[in-house]
Design goal:
about 85% helix; about 80 residues
Length: about 80
């Protein structure tokens, strides 16, 4: 049974780590595209900025949900057999 708990800890670490990497890459790409678009059309900068912050919140929300699920698995393991 101890090896199952080790795998749950490993899976939780992978969920949090890969989620953080994905969120950082996504926000980085989005930020660079925002700067490119605002340099091309400065008159649309306000609309683009609003949409950029909305998408940044959605990207972070997906990462935080993944972190919550990983911590749930780590503390209240649903795969552990009840004895």
């Amino acid at each position: 049974m101890e090896h199952v708990l080790g795998f749950v800890a490993l899976a939780a670490g992978l969920i949090i780590g890969l989620g953080a990497i994905g969120a950082c890459i996504g926000i980085g790409i989005m930020g660079s595209k925002f700067l490119e678009a605002s340099a091309r059309q400065p008159e649309l900068m306000g609309q683009l900025q609003t949409r950029m912050f909305l998408l940044a919140g959605l990207i972070d929300a997906a990462f935080i949900i993944g972190t919550g699920i990983a911590l749930w698995f780590a503390t209240a393991n649903p795969f552990q057999l009840v004895q």
